[in-house]
User: What shape does this take?
Amino acid sequence: MIAIQPYEQAQFADVDALWRSVFPDDPPHNHAAVAIPQKLAVQRDLLLVAQEDGHVLGTIMAGYDGHRGWLYKLAVHPRARGCGIARALIRAAERALADLGCTKVNLQVRDTNHDAAAFWAHMGYAVEPRISMGRTL
Assistant: This one.
C-alpha cells in the first residue's frame, strides 16, 4: 500500500536519486542537497513523499506565502508511473495548502516539457496569460 507522508531525513538518499533521475537538467540550486534543507527550514510538512514498503516512489513539494500556493518537484519513479501516485501526491499537497487557507495554486512547467504540460492540464491546471520571470541570487 502506498503511503503519503511528510519527508523524513532518512529518505534523503532515495529522494536525491529520484530527483537526479527525473530532473537530470536541473541547475545546482534545485538539487536535493540544497532544496531539501531550504524546504525543511520553512513549511517542512509541505515536502511530501509517496512510499511503499520503505521505498520512495514519488515526491511533491508545496509552498504557501499567505497569498498563493506553489507546487514543485512532482516526481514519480519511472517504474511506478501510471499507478495514480502523481495524482495522490498532488491532491495531498492541494489539501495541505487548502488547510493553510490557500485558494489559488500555481506551478511552472518548462516550455519544452509537453508531456508534463498535458499531464497538468489533465489534472485541472490551465495555462494562464502570464510571463514567468526569475532571478538567481
Observations:
- The mean pLDDT is 95.
- The longest helix spans residues 85-99.
- DSSP finds four helices and five strands in the chain.
- Residues 28 and 34 are 8 Å apart (CA to CA).
